[in-house]
Amino acid sequence: MKPRVELLALFLGAALLMLTAGAGPCFAQIDINIHTVTGPMESHIGDVTGHSEVGRQYYRRFCIGCHGPDGDGEGENAKWFDTTMGFAKPRDFTTAVFECRSTPTGTLPTDQDLFNAMTRGFVTTNMPQWRPLIPQERADLVAFIKTFSRKWETQKPGTPITIPPETPINIESILRGRELFSSLQCWKCHGPEGKGNGPAAATLTDDKGNPIRPYNFSIGDRFKCGTSNEDLYRIFMTGLDGSPMPSFADLIQPNQAWDLVHFLRTLQPMATPEAAEWKTYASAHGKEIKPIGAEPPGGN
Amino acid sequence: MFECVLLVSKAKKPIPVRGIFAVLALLAGALLAAVPPAAALPGSHMKVRAIPAFARKYGLPCSACHTAWPELNNFGTVFRDNGYQLMNDRDSPIWQNPSYFPITMRMTPNWHLENTTNQQVDSVPGGATGTLVSKTVQVNGFDLSGMDLWTAGTLYKNISFSLLPSSDNTGAFHFENAFVRFDNLGHSTWFNLKVGKFELDNWISEKRFLFLSNNGGLYQTYHFAPLGDINGVGIGDNQLGVELAGHSANSYTRYSVSLLSDNDGNVGLPSNRGYSVFMAFSQAFNGGSQGLQRIGAYALVGQQPTYFMTSSTVPIPGEGIGNKPYYRVGFNGDFFLFHSKLEILPLYMHGYDNVYLGIGEPSNAPLLSYAQCTAPGVCRAPEWNGGFVEAHYYYSPQLVMIGRYELIRMSQQALSTNPGNQSNIDAYSIGYRWYPIMFSRAGLAFHNEYSITKSIGIVPLSGDGVGLPPLAANGKVWSGSLLIGFDFDF
């Protein structure tokens, strides 16, 4: 059969009609007209250069549902994120405040920081790991999310902090870290056993006033900003801007930060060298270990 | 009368927009006026899948997991490979609101036209004594697709499931898939075990593709059997068995090995006790600014009975014997260009059936004992080559243009006396899908497609026409479908 000309014409006519009449967002219940505030941006991830003009299409495809057309974290799904179940609200890109950085508190993150955050996602939230996107696509997205804030035009990213070599893992370091965990009052949010259930946990909010939960060390091997000891060190020293987790860079020395890292590793469920050290010590000195958060007699 | 509402997220009140449905009504009216009325319609294939229940669970728009739903992009592939999990320690049902129920419904009200040439038709309509002549049969009208009622998700962290009762367009249900999957065994993404009825790990999935019409809504290559062949196995059919599969963290590298009951997915063990094996492997590469590039290979090796044990001459179900081998083997690709806006999907397959399967005779007698095998070498194992090239252009997440060319060529006929081109197929499809809504609660697509196939000496795989081959052994049958419909799921 030869294709009937009239059918083909009808088909193409229908296509033309639909294209001209409404290929735009006529029916859309979300605003797909993205509103940015800066000119085109670039990102530089190793050898890869990201372009915001390209990243726009990926943002619309992957990100707009949560982060919204204005990048303010008010996407159509944001209101359904149940913070009582521990789901954090989407990041507001218009403030250019980011939790996971290699740069000091109060500074902009590097492109690589944003790329890494996008790649690993955020455990216990709805922010997935975007590793399935190729590096070029992620770099394009990094460039694009910078177009939501003028800070990227007026400020430069901070200089990444220097992470000194890790101190030896031994029980002395773990015990010092345990003491710091107590004296710095980390337990008030994270709980004496690191389960995220400290006495202040229920009162915490992020910088937009949304309830936020402290990290529960007992559930897995991923932190919000990585998995390694270096990642954990970085979290102490840079803080998680926008959340109640402060930077301790002005309060503790690098070797003390490593002590804290070594102690916190003992709270996790995995078989780590730190956990092995602690298990050996605890079996021999169990009765001598004072509970974290216990008030001393007399209230001192 | 017709009115659609535009709810812009930042707008304070709905903005009424008139006219779109009116245009559609005019279009439908024009179509009705342009084509003649018709009689019965064959069932549409329309087996494609998408799960807005997952979008509702995770708050991601359809476009996050689908290039254009229902086709998965690599993010969606990773999600599926992980057992419908985002792997953020919030996948177990315990983290969901108890009222959440992961169920999806899908259907496609449509208008379609089927036109098939060279059909055996009585010379006098209704006349019992008339002679058969070749004529064109055309039907058209408003119709429904079948319906999917799909639930899938996680039973627990790293235990996932899928249950898909699916009906034809009369409402007769069957289980299109039903499986439980144990994910990330040994804390490794390389070991996942699935048991039940499931789609074979075809990288170019027929269950998730973008064509819906009778002639375009299937890959000919996935279901082809030469004229007279009794092997009904198609790699496009969901199969019963167990699958071991694995993947890298980003699913760039994927493999699967499946052990399948050789019943072509039919429940109740109707055929035989034989088993087949399906294997697939694919590797993706970072294509820079072009997008992700993937190549893969697959093979299905099995056996099918050539006759049954009988009781008083009645075949005993499941007691198929005289098993003879067959295989399907090939490679495929998935290439993106221009920042992932253009997708090219090529596939090649070589098919082989044992000679007894090819001629449709029991294997408990020598070939020369059959009348059609008139001399040594007349009856042979049929072999063929098939494949297609499919292209998608994603103008935006809400508009995709689609096209495909497919062909099948017999390289060896089961009977050397048959015309060399008998059973050959050429198939062409073109169309587009427009998604007027794109969010995380439901999906709607305006689907417009024209597909046409040319098959030689056989009944079109679409099922269009009268169900008989053309009168001449090498007669060409052109079978065309025009489909306009609204494909929705919730």
Tally of individual helices of chain A = 10
Spell the H/E element sequence of chain A. HEEHHHHHHHHH
- Radius of gyration of chain A in whole Å, from Cα? 24 Å
Could you describe the largest sheet of chain A, including whether it forms a barrel?
A: 2 strands, antiparallel
Uncertain runs of chain A are: 23-30
What is the total number of structural domains of chain A?
2
Average pLDDT, all residues of chain B: 88
Count the beta strands of chain A. Answer: 2
Binned strand content of chain B:
over 45%
Q: Assign the CATH superfamily of the largest domain in chain A.
A: Cytochrome c-like domain
Biggest interface: A-B, 67 and 74 residues
CATH architecture call of the largest domain in chain A:
Orthogonal Bundle
Overall pLDDT score of chain A? 88
- Topology order of chain B in helix (H) and strand (E) letters: EEHHHEEHEEEEEEEHEEEEEEEEHEEEEE
What portion of residues of chain A is helical?
Answer: 25-40%
Fold and architecture overview:
The complex is a heterodimer of chains A (300) and B (490). Chain A has 300 residues and is an all-alpha fold. Chain A has two domains: 42-154, Cytochrome c-like domain (Cytochrome Bc1 Complex, Chain D, domain 2, Orthogonal Bundle); 171-285, Cytochrome c-like domain (Cytochrome Bc1 Complex, Chain D, domain 2, Orthogonal Bundle), CATH 1.10.760.10. Chain A contains ten helices and two strands. Chain A has helices at residues 5-22, 52-67, 111-120, 135-145, 151-154, 171-183, 187-190, 229-238, 254-265, 273-285, and strands at residues 42-45, 48-51. In chain A, strands 1-2 form a two-stranded antiparallel sheet. Chain A is elongated. The model of chain A is unreliable at 23-30 (pLDDT under 50). Chain B has two domains: 1-34, no CATH class; 107-143 and 206-489, Porin (Beta Barrel), CATH 2.40.160. Chain B has a 16-stranded antiparallel beta barrel. In chain B, strand 14 and strand 15 form a beta hairpin. Chain B is globular and about 65 Å long. The two termini of chain B are 25 Å apart.
